[in-house]
Amino acid sequence: MTRTVYGVGPRLSILNVPEPKTAKNRLHIDIRVPVHGGPDERWERIMAEALRLVEAGGTILEEVDRHHVVMADPEGNEFCVAASAA
User: Of the given ranges (2-6, 31-35, 48-52, 73-77), which has the lowest mean pLDDT?
Assistant: First the structure.
């Protein structure tokens, strides 16, 4: 089941997952950057946001196929930076 809440502010989706809890944190945040244009522009915007978040204390863990960036906050909680849906 997916629940999506729309309105002013960020969009929040709550998803059921089949795996049991295996870590301290089951909340996973995706930060979506608005992008118009081709794949190169999309990747530039994703990386610009990731680098902005590094300056704020985040860490880049992995760049995945020029699609999204896996990051961690200063406490080690993972999140992703990706392009918004067209």
Answer: 2-6
Q: Is 66 helix (H, G, I), strand (E, B) or coil?
A: coil
Candidates 45, 50, 46; CA nearest to 60 is 50
Contacts 24+ apart (CB under 8 A), 22-26: 25/77
Q: How far apart are CA 57 and CA 64, in angstroms?
A: 21
Residue 52, token pair as written in the block = 């902005």
| pLDDT tens per residue, range 26-63 | 677 889 998 888 999 999 999 999 999 999 999 999 99
On whether the CB atoms of residues 70 and 20 are closer than 8 A, the answer is no
Which residues are within 8 A (CB) of 25 and not within 5 positions of it... i.e. 6 or more apart? 77
Report DSSP letters for 30-49, one per residue: EEEE---S-HHHHHHHHHHH
How many other CB atoms are there within 10 angstroms of residue 44's CB atom? 13
